[in-house]
Amino acid sequence: MKKTFAAACAALCALAFCACSGEAETENGSEGVYTEITASETVSETEAQTDAPSEQAETETETQTESETTAEAAAVPCADITAAIMESVELPSMAEVGADRIGMYLDLTVPEDCDFSMYICGSGGFADEVFVINTADISVDDVKAAAEKRIETRKKDFEGYNPDEYDKLENYVSAEKDGYYMYAVTVDNSVCESIFDEYVK
């Protein structure tokens, strides 16, 4: 009887141990699967978050490159504008003013790479002048001030000496558009304005 009872208890204990072990394996197995799925999802989310800024950066870079290309394509050499004016308007013999001499005529410090074009009457006997500058690298206010000072100085040169040239200076034209500035002292300033508007769009 005692042996039978002991055997029965042993059998019950064995069954209970197996059942507990099975539950433990099932729980551990589930936790393992859950952990694996969570880790996988976390990696995917991290990759998605990492890719998003990268794609955005690429888009911004492409947009910036396109803008720079458009700006470069839209840039007009100032010499093209002054050349078109001199071909279309009656002017005396004109002399080009280079970067090394511009300070002699305009109270202005022009940056080394700044695009500009200036022509004055070579003989000095006429007031005619044409000046165009790209103001991307220089203060447009400084340019305007220098131009106005130049006109006032030339007025004094011709006042009481040559009324026709003085009138040209009185009626000089200036224009500012899309980063460009121009002033012109000619017999046909309306043509100068039209050419400037045609080139600078």
In short:
The chain is 61% helix and 13% strand.
Verbal overview:
The chain has about 200 residues and is an alpha+beta fold. It has five helices and five strands, in the order H-H-E-E-E-H-H-E-E-H. It has helices at about 1-75, 80-90, 140-160, 165-170, 190-200; strands at about 95, 115-120, 130-135, 175, 180-185. The protein has a five-stranded antiparallel sheet, sandwiched between helices. Strand 2 and strand 3 form a beta hairpin. Helix 2 runs antiparallel to helix 5 (about 190-200) and helix 3 packs antiparallel against helix 4.
In terms of topology, how is this protein built?
Layout: H1 2-74, H2 78-88, E1 94-97, E2 116-121, E3 129-134, H3 140-158, H4 163-170, E4 173-177, E5 180-185, H5 189-199
Antiparallel strand pairs: 1-2, 2-3, 3-5, 4-5
Helix pairs in contact: 2-5, 3-4
Portion in strands: 5-15%
Per the principal axes of the C-alpha atoms, what is the gross shape?
Answer: globular
What's the tally of helices? 5
Measured as a percent range, the helix fraction is 55-70%
Distance between the termini: 113 Å
- The stretches of 5 or more residues where confidence is low (pLDDT under 50) are 1-9, 11-40
Query: What is the chain-wise order of helices and strands?
Result: HHEEEHHEEH
